TrEMBL record:
UniProt name for this protein: DNA-binding transcriptional regulator, LysR family
GO cellular component, one term: protein-DNA complex
PROSITE patterns recorded: HTH_LYSR
InterPro entries reported for this sequence: LysR_HTH_N, LysR_subst-bd, WH-like_DNA-bd_sf, WH_DNA-bd_sf
PANTHER family: HCA OPERON TRANSCRIPTIONAL ACTIVATOR HCAR (PTHR30346:SF0), TRANSCRIPTIONAL DUAL REGULATOR HCAR-RELATED (PTHR30346)
One GO MF term: DNA binding
Record-annotated HTH lysR-type domain positions: 1-58
Keywords, alphabetical: DNA-binding, Transcription, Transcription regulation
Assigned protein family: Belongs to the LysR transcriptional regulatory family.
Length: 295
């Protein structure tokens, strides 16, 4: 059964005249008649009663007409959905987030997205840190991911959304809680809490690098899977940690102390693969450029 045959039947059924139906479809009567006969053969039933003076619907034709309208309406709706998806008006966008800094960016992005592109659903995938974010963007399991620079990956594009620097986090009753600043070397005897080893978190790598630069290897005694857990352990007095300034407005149960001397800076970026970039994901990126402009 061909959609053109259904369209031809609807035209004839509504006009009850082959000549007018042919004009409506911008064709001539012979091919129109052939389409009706082909449709009738495929259905195994007569749809139209024809005489030299008039055209009428058979009982089968009368029953078939509403169904034919539904078919054509469904086709039109499917075409509209495809057009909307192609123009980035609808779709699902999966974005990977690890750490509280990127999470703090999401409310503004979601609010703007809902206002401008209500047909796009943003699905947030949590505990996705930089290396995993790059991997998942490359294999297409994520459309976008927040990653920490200067890490790079072939085939992945990035855009910086905010700058950060390392800062010390201690419990409120820690001896350093009242300090205006602290030298990294002063932390050589401290117990540290960090993300798990194995390249999961670039923040862990930056913390270790900074400590080694200061002349010691941090004594890591506890691991936390994400920032809020690490900060809860710091608040409990189980150790200290080096974190980034984006947590200052989000975490309140610890005391943050600036680092003296050389600043250890990093950048948070949005990453995507041009190979897997859908129209909906491209629309999210355009909105993110306004909501989260490059500093």
């Amino acid at each position: 059964m061909d959609l053109r045959h259904i369209e031809a039947f609807i035209a004839v059924a509504e006009e009850l005249h082959f000549g007018r139906a042919a004009e409506r479809l911008h064709t001539t009567q012979p091919p129109l008649s052939r389409q009706i006969r082909q449709l009738e053969r495929s259905l195994g039933a007569s749809l139209l009663s024809r005489t030299t003076r008039r055209v009428t619907l058979t009982p089968v034709g009368e029953a078939f007409l509403p169904a034919a309208h539904k078919v054509m309406k469904s086709v039109e709706e499917a075409a509209a959905v495809a057009a909307s998806a192609a123009h980035g008006e609808i779709g699902t966008v999966r974005i990977g987030v690890g750490g509280v800094g990127p999470l703090a960016c999401l409310p503004g992005l979601v609010k703007r997205l809902n206002a401008e592109k209500p047909g796009i659903e943003l699905v947030v995938v949590g505990q996705v840190y930089s290396q995993a974010g790059f991997d998942m963007v490359v294999d297409g399991s994520l459309d976008l991911a927040f990653v920490r620079l200067p890490a790079v990956r072939e085939g992945v594009s990035t855009r910086v959304v905010f700058d950060e620097r390392l800062i010390l986090a201690v419990a409120p009753d820690h001896p350093l809680a009242g300090a205006e600043s602290v030298e990294l070397a002063e932390l050589a005897e401290e117990r540290f809490i960090a993300y798990p080893p194995g390249g999961v978190s670039s923040l862990r790598d930056l913390m270790v690098h900074a400590c080694v630069d200061a002349g010691f290897t941090p004594r890591i005694v506890q691991y936390g899977p994400e920032t809020s857990t690490i900060m809860a352990m710091v608040a409990a007095g189980l150790g200290v940690t080096l974190t980034v300034t984006s947590v200052l407005d989000v975490i309140s149960n610890v005391v943050f102390v600036p680092l003296a001397g050389r600043p250890y800076q990093t950048q948070e970026a949005i990453a995507w693969s041009q190979e897997h970039l859908s129209p909906a994901a491209a629309a999210v990126l355009r909105i993110a450029e306004e909501v989260l402009p490059t500093p």
